[in-house]
Design a protein that fits this description.
The protein is mainly α and 176 residues long. The protein contains 6 helices and 4 strands. α2 packs across α5 and α3 crosses α4.
Length: 176
């Protein structure tokens, strides 16, 4: 006998013993042969075990699930080159303070609230220029994106969800 239990995509097949020759002894005065009583007990146990598995399947399926969204590493891999190419206008492989300021100024004009973009941009540039060579490398540009990621990650779980990427209060575009 086979019993199939299906729940939310998970299937469990429970095999119960097949019929056997009837024994000659009755158990506990039920009038049923011993093998039939044993068979019923096994079937009930298997059905109960299958029901427990069926109820536990959704919870088990959720454990170990990867977070849906974008991690910092994925965010940097996807956006570092794009941002670097946009800021490095003379294509010399470095972002100069002038290129950075021009980009920040363009953003300030687009955003009427950003009136102090010039001085703030100089401080930001100095903070991200870790080796103090007067320009930003690709690795240093990735740090800019890490700051951006941290600001966008509203619940601080290390994953940007679609909702966080599309949040109205923050600009989800790549850049500074």
């Amino acid at each position: 006998m086979r019993i199939r239990i299906t729940t939310e995509g998970a299937q469990f097949l429970v095999l119960a013993p097949t019929e056997s020759p009837p024994p000659r002894v009755s158990v506990s005065g039920t009038g049923l042969p011993a093998s039939e009583t044993l068979r019923q007990m096994i079937i009930r146990t298997l059905i109960a075990a299958g029901a427990v598995l069926a109820l536990a399947a959704p919870a088990l399926a959720q454990t170990g699930a990867a977070p849906s969204g974008m991690t910092l590493e994925q965010f940097q891999a996807k956006n570092t080159d794009k941002m670097f190419d946009r800021l490095d206008t003379n294509k010399d492989g470095k972002i100069s303070p002038e290129e950075f300021a021009a980009f920040r100024e363009g953003n300030a004009k687009a955003d009427a609230k950003a009136t102090k973009a010039g001085k703030r941009g100089q401080r930001m540039f100095a903070r991200f220029d870790k080796d103090k060579d007067g320009s930003l490398s690709r690795a240093e540009a990735a740090d800019v994106l890490a700051m951006r990621f941290k600001r966008m990650d509203a619940n601080n779980d290390g994953v940007l969800t679609i909702e966080e990427l599309q949040a109205k209060g923050r600009k989800a575009k790549v850049g500074v």
